[in-house]
Write a structure and sequence with these properties.
The chain has a single domain, classed as Purple Acid Phosphatase, chain A, domain 2 (4-Layer Sandwich), CATH 3.60.21.10. It has eight helices and 13 strands. The chain has a five-stranded mixed β-sheet, with no helix packed on it. It comes from Mesorhizobium argentiipisi. Belongs to the metallophosphoesterase superfamily. YfcE family. This is Metallophosphoesterase family protein. InterPro entries: Ap4A_hydrolase, Calcineurin-like_PHP_lpxH, Metallo-depent_PP-like, Pesterase_MJ0912.
Length: 269
Amino acid sequence: MRIAVVADIHGNVLALEAVLDDLNQRGGADIIVNLGDCVSGPLWPRETMERLQALNLPTVRGNHDRRVAQDVADKAMWPSDRYAQERLTAPQREALLALPLTLEIVPGVVAFHARPDHDEKYLADAIVDGQLLRAPLAAIRRRLKSLDPACRLVLCGHSHRNELIRIPDGPVIFNPGSVGCPAYEDDTAPAHVSEQGSPHARYGIVELNVPGRADRFEAVAVDYDHEAAAKQAEQAGRPEWANALRTGFMRIERSSYPDRAEPMHEAQG
């Protein structure tokens, strides 16, 4: 079986189309799995939602999908979520909220956005000196404890960072990176950034049960018209998004972070 994995599209329909085109050029896939955070961002939320609904992919709910669908539009609402919420129809918002937290794609292969029991806490990451880094193995194991022991492969997103981790006597974790948002800043304490380091649209391909060899994992980075996406973000009044889309980095003052390593935030478990 050949599984294509997309995550964290964030309303970037241009990046999504580039990924789909690239996948077709590579021979397609038996199934395309969407790991959530579909539309939140100052780009093309309604167009992205319409494209995804037409594709009808197996999809899990991301934290921003929940927030776009459920949060009250006020000053406390995150701007990217409010932008998307204002542009979606009521049925589209209801469809986002109805997405499941987890999906078993095939026996032993489980998909979720962040963790199997939570859509907003990091699975394989720790916050260290204002950056996302790989978490200790013991912490990752603990965060997976609700999974069925028969699970052999975990597909997850949320951090926007490509990861491939084999847990000893446990599952393989595969995060394809973000299709449409190559960098972000989260000012929730402890404040941190995630940076893919380039503007490419990211996705993954997994080949299972390959005759004569082990499962195969491929992380793919696709060029697309990121300048058009950046200009769209600028028109929406989000220059920091525009910079992230152009560069894959956040403009942020590193000296604002502590010199010492920041311990894992308690909320991250």
